[in-house]
Amino acid sequence: MTFDDEETEKKSPPKDPKAELLKKLKIGGIAAAVIIVFVLIFMSATNKPQGHMMFGICRTFVEVQTTYPPTLHVTEVEQYQRAVRIYYTYTDAFGTQKSEFIECAFESVPGKGAQLTAILLNRTEIDQETIKEFNDTISAIVAGEPDLTLPRPFGKNLEDLKR
User: Fold this and answer.
1) pTM score, two decimals?
2) Which tops the pLDDT comparison, 33 or 106?
3) Burial of 51: CB neighbours in 10 Å, binned 0-12, 13-18, 19+
4) pLDDT at 162 (0 to 100)
5) In this predicted model, what pLDDT tens digit does every residue of 7-29 receive, in sequence order?
6) Which residues pair with residue 105 across a beta bridge?
7) Helix (H), strand (E), coil (C) string for 41-78
8) At a CB cut-off of 8 Å and minimum separation 6, what does 114 contact?
9) Cα 118 to the center of its chain, rounded Å
10) Where are the strands (E) in the chain, listed by range?
């Protein structure tokens, strides 16, 4: 080591404690921000979209009308301001998998909330007596908190159509 090297070592400025603290705070803030972003991405990836109560009421009607409700699988849902259309598949009593759709139209009734006014099952209208009987059970359906989980949307590839 030469004389010049000793002078450069001695001339290095002393470390400022405030600057060190600021540097550590910046690194900690960046690390916290990265962790928060990853948590938000994870939460949004695992969060399943929810439909509104009209979807839950219409889905419950389908479950009541289906012979084997555990085989019911909702494939697509279209929600409108006063109506819901649900496309679904189920297995019938002969073991055949069927694909159908139902459209439920609603009307707001003072004191009762949303009430069914018309139901089309595969474009065939359900009689008003059945609808009236089902409307009497809507308060119990809402109190029972039906499953409002919407199916994931279809992808752009044919492979995405497999469920």
Assistant:
1) 0.69
2) 106
3) buried
4) 65
5) 555 555 667 778 788 888 888 88
6) 83, 118
7) HHHHHHCCCECCHHHHHHHHHHHHHCCCHHHCEEEEEE
8) 53, 54, 57, 106, 107, 108, 138
9) 27
10) 73-79, 83-91, 97-109, 113-121, 124-125
